[in-house]
Amino acid sequence: MGKVEGQGESWHGHVTAVTVAPEFRRQQLAKKLMNLLEDISDKIDKAYFVDLFVRASNTPAIKMYEKLEYIIYRRVLRYYSGEEDGLDMRKALSRDVEKKSIIPLKRPVTPDELEYD
């Protein structure tokens, strides 16, 4: 499930959740869902990038997103329940010709620093 949000160069597709039931995993369903959201965000909504948040401890998901060409844009301290860090991962779309949206931040941020446009 996803949406498009933001303003200006922060106009982006956002992955709210990707869940595949255990019996249907390893069939590339998550990849197909991600590609669909990326295509809609790129071609229809003309977004600059797609982003998502993932638990820093969720190594299988991080690896999957990296295979889909997402980069770790920034670490969000105590993003999950005030305890576990989250990673904000991004993938630039065709409108972001200079790939400015995926230049990683050099320092972690706190949840109150996140912009919710």
TrEMBL record:
Domain N-acetyltransferase intervals: 1-94
A GO term for molecular function: protein-N-terminal amino-acid acetyltransferase activity
Any single Gene Ontology cellular-component annotation: NatB complex
UniProt xrefs under Pfam families: Acetyltransf_1
Domain of life of the organism encoding this protein: Eukaryota
PANTHER family documented for this protein: N-ALPHA-ACETYLTRANSFERASE 20
Identification of the protein by name: N-acetyltransferase domain-containing protein
Organism: Centaurea solstitialis (yellow star-thistle)
